[in-house]
Amino acid sequence: MEELSEVISPGEISEAVRRLGAEINRDYAGRGILALCVLNGSFIFFSDLIRELTLPLEVDFLRARSYSSTESSGEVKVECWLKADIEGKDVLLVEDIVDTGLTLNVIIQRLMAGNPKTLKVCALLDKRAGRKAEINPDYTGFLVDDHFLVGYGLDLDGRHRNIRGVCKVRPPGAEFP
Ligand code: IMP
């Protein structure tokens, strides 16, 4: 079994989620937003973030997959698309972590085809060193180093999503860098 080492505590996450919520409330004051949750990894972050929002709010969900174990396959599959009509709406895409940016790139292109009024991205974690597509979240919780992370919704082969903090993973037999 791999070992885990916490890099962001539950308290630090709550503080960041409150800060992000306040920024979004301020920037969209007087408007309503459609918040989109990118499943599966974002479900916990999304649930916490939207409860910080005091704006008129609609939510919807989509599911994308690009990782197998700890590696991005580079091939993005959108497995489930939203139900909402996004035309003319202020859309906020909520993602757990941006690494290569390939997943968001595919999702953003597809969303833009639906003619939203505005489209912004809120990511809890930004692993900038891994970037292959030009994606810069409008709202970022934490810049993180290039380690594989789990917890607070992020998984390794479906496990560890329920850990309250964010942890880096040490594979069996390896040292923590
Ligand atoms: P990207 O397309 O490389 O930017 O990866 C985006 C998706 O890959 C995220 O939504 C996550 O689901 C997954 N992912 C990227 N890095 C990690 C990680 O460190 N731990 C768990 N999942 C990750």
Give a quick summary of the entry.
This protein is α/β, with parallel strands linked by helices and 177 residues long. The protein has helices spanning 10-27, 43-50, 102-112, and strands at 3-8, 33-39, 57-68, 71-80, 90-98, 118-126, 139-143, 149-150, 166-170.
Topology of helices and strands:
Layout: E1 3-8, H1 10-27, E2 33-39, H2 43-50, E3 57-68, E4 71-80, E5 90-98, H3 102-112, E6 118-126, E7 139-143, E8 149-150, E9 166-170
This protein binds inosinic acid.
Q: Give the CA-based shape.
A: globular
CATH class: Alpha Beta
The count of helical stretches stands at 3
Q: What is the CATH architecture annotation?
A: 3-Layer(aba) Sandwich
Helical fraction: 10-25%
- Report the end-to-end length measured between terminal Cα atoms: 18 Å
The H/E string reads EHEHEEEHEEEE
Average pLDDT over all residues = 92
Category by helix and strand content: alpha/beta
Q: How is this structure best described in words?
A:
With 177 residues, the chain is an alpha/beta fold. It has one domain (11-145): Rossmann fold (3-Layer(aba) Sandwich), CATH 3.40.50.2020. The chain contains 3 helices and 9 strands, in the order βαβαβββαββββ. The protein has helices spanning 10-27, 43-50, 102-112, and strands spanning 3-8, 33-39, 57-68, 71-80, 90-98, 118-126, 139-143, 149-150, 166-170. Strands 4-3-2-5-6-7 form a 6-stranded mixed beta sheet, sandwiched between helices. Strand 5, helix 3 (102-112) and strand 6 (118-126) form a beta-alpha-beta unit. Helix 1 crosses helix 2 (43-50). The longest helix has 18 residues, at 10-27. The two termini are 18 Å apart. Residues 38, 41, 66-67, 72, 95-103, 127, 148-150, 154 line the site of inosinic acid (IMP).
